[in-house]
Amino acid sequence: MRKFGIVLKYELKEYFCNKAFMGLTILLAAIGMGLLFLPRFIDMSNLTGVKIVGDSKEESEDATQEETQEKFLYVDQAGVVREEVLVQMFPQSSWQKAADEEAVRAAVEAQEAEAGFVVTSPTSYIYYVYNKSMQDSDAMMFEQALKMFYRMDYCETSGLNLDEITSMFDVAVTMDWEIINKDTGSNYWYCYTLVILVFMLIVYYGQMIAVSITNEKSNRAIEVLVTSTSPNSLLFGKVVAGAVAGVFQMGLILGAVLAAYQVNREQWGGMLDMLLHIPTEVLLAFGFFGLGGYLFYAFLYGAMGALVSKMEDISKSASGLMVIVMAVYFFSLLQLTNVEGTMIKVLSFLPISSYSTMFARIAMGTVEAWEIVVSFLILVLSILGAGFLGAKLYRMGTLRYGNPIKLGTALKDLSKNEN
After folding, report:
1. What stretch of H or E contains 118?
2. Considering the entire predicted model, what is its pTM?
């Protein structure tokens, strides 16, 4: 235990005395917090719908409306356009009648107008726009306006009451929400984000551990280390130190972002709740299962690093493990839309995937307490198993140089030695 403590202390010092590591951690946390404080200093009302900046809220709203007002042109060859209806259907817009179709085209081409419409008949029109974006809905809205003009003219000529007809077809229906358990749709996006975060933690720090071990073998430092301490202490010390450093970095960045959002949630109008308003029980589940999944894979990455002697062989040695990590990652993301399905329930009990699927089930579905306990116990036992297996592979591979050792060959050698 003393040797493990020495290795752990040394490895932690390597992380926390590394200026690049600490600088990047603080920088990312500061950037995250700074972005979430922006609505307090910059008018982002177009995005958030909340007016904060300025001495007068009403003056700020008026100024914003003037700045964001879009100019539209139209030519009414059919004599059906009602400009007051267009203003109602296109908020924060101004409408101007053009002389002819060429005037509309010229204004749009010179970007003097957002778009232009030439109504050729009561049920047809030509839409002019300079650059049509993927989110462009102006044509669709104008089509609805043209339908409204047609209905209004038809009712006038037929002696019908448009308001009565409209109220009959568009009867108001009220609904009160009462979610008994979980709102899957609202919780989806922060689960999606957390799955990505824990995946990045596993891949980044797992590779770092493998590189560290291989580097010690390549420069023969391992020969000195194994004479002063045991391979078990070395591997466990490196993995636990990596876990502490990873949790510190991820925790500081994520904690800073979540805290900054809670402080500025009103300024954002709650629009980032789907990403950053995460319930405490989900964060706790993410912490326990995410850390467990990281430790499980970190021991395996450490063993893969011990099976090679050259830095360029790491990717080959860890490729099989990387395939498993990637497959679990993508499959878990696909299953987030069906958290009550059989597949994700099975994945939530497997140590290779429970680090992401179990906290997703907790956030978005129905999970019994015994399921959480059993899944976590399986994960803990798997961590211990991966740790001891990784330590044996590490012990066997530390003083073996040359070509990379295949995992199958290493496992066969271990079984022979035990027999």
Report:
1. strand 115-121
2. 0.69
